[in-house]
Amino acid sequence: MENTLIQRVYVWQLPVRLYHWVNAIAVVLLACTGYLIGHPFAIQSGTEAYDNYWFGTVRFTHFVSAFFFFFNFIGRIYWGFVGNKYASWHNFIPTKKKQYEEMVDVLKVDILQGTIKPLESIGHNSLAGLTYFISFLAFLFQCITGFGMYAAMSTSMLPHLFSWIVPFMGGDFAVRQWHHIMMWFFIVFSIVHVYLVFYHDYVEGRGIISSMAGGWKFIEKEKNK
Ligand code: HEM
Ligand code: HEM
User: Fold this and answer.
1) Is 38 in the pocket of ligand 1 (CB under 6 A)?
2) Considering the entire predicted model, what is its pTM?
3) Residue 196 Cα, ligand 1 centroid: separation in angstroms?
4) Which residue's CA is minimally distant from atom 8 of ligand 1?
5) d(CA 138, CA 39)
6) Cβ neighbourhood burial of 185 (10 Å; 0-12, 13-18, 19+)
7) CB under 6 Å to ligand 2: residues?
8) 3-class DSSP state of 90
9) Ligand 1 close to Cβ of residue 142 (< 6 A)
10) Which of 86, 102, 126, 184 has the most crowded Cβ, counting Cβ within 10 A?
């Protein structure tokens, strides 16, 4: 029988874990309320108009979540420069040959259901890191287009920093259309992401899912026959 010595490694610091869960909740709220803004229900009612503020509440929830989403994202960008080596930006953009080789290995596991080799990375694997980087670009796009539209309904300074985007992208209609299409990126990303973290939790056996709660992963130290 094979005994494996396991070492505990503190991978995700508190700011990364907080960022992750605030972001996950905000994205779910933004996608649900955004979908309703794009396809509102036709609710009929005989009461006073001010008793039927449900659409206003949906929009309010979208905008409040948007502010959480935006400042949380800024916090994560900052933590990419000052956090530990697993939080650093180097994990998101593959620059070394080894990282590309790992991406091929992970694809073999995820798509061809191959057996996993011991992974080089302890934090995000190279393929996961690259997909998170792509999702960060999508976050940026959603913030720029969202605040661009919001500028028309706000007197605050922050949304007005983005007001140039509306004429630049061809008007309100075009910006809303792109903002809407991008929602589907987040829906597909979230489904694939949750599936893959569960799958990797199983094939790697390193406690990936609980690592986003407590911060620790469990890495093979050495093998004793
Ligand atoms: C993951 C992030 C987000 C998703 C999935 C999302 C999704 C959506 C969707 C689907 C719509 C409806 C578009 C349509 O078909 O008309 C919408 C509208 C809108 N969103 Fe977002 N959004 C996100 C982030 C943001 C952010 C960061 C802001 C910044 C304030 C924002 C501001 C707006 C505004 C102003 C509207 C138009 C509301 C209206 O005219 O009633 N969104 N969003
Ligand atoms: C039940 C739902 C979720 C679970 C269990 C979960 C779990 C995890 C885990 C375990 C990681 C680290 C994986 C690794 O080692 O590579 C991670 C990273 C990440 N997840 Fe999720 N996740 C969930 C929902 C979401 C949602 C809805 C989003 C947003 C669309 C999201 C965005 C991210 C991002 C951006 C990272 C990288 C974090 C960073 O380095 O800052 N997750 N997630």
Assistant:
1) yes
2) 0.91
3) 27
4) 34
5) 22
6) middle
7) 16, 19-20, 23-24, 27-28, 76, 124, 128, 132, 135, 186, 189-190, 193-194, 197, 208-209, 211-212
8) helix
9) yes
10) 126
For 6-48, write each residue's pLDDT tens digit. 889 999 999 999 999 999 999 999 999 999 999 998 878 888 8
pLDDT in tens, 44-54: 888 887 788 88
Alpha-carbon distance of 212 to 14, in angstroms, equals 9
CB 165 within 8 A of CB 140: no
Give 148-193 as a DSSP string. Answer: HHHGGG--SHHHHTTTTHHHHTTSHHHHHHHHHHHHHHHHHHHHHH
Confidence at 222, pLDDT banded by 50, 70, 90: low
For 165, half-sphere exposure in the C-beta direction (CA atoms, 13 angstrom radius) is 23
The pLDDT, as a whole number, for residue 2 is 61
CATH number of 3-224: 1.20.950.20
Domain limits, the chain: 3-224
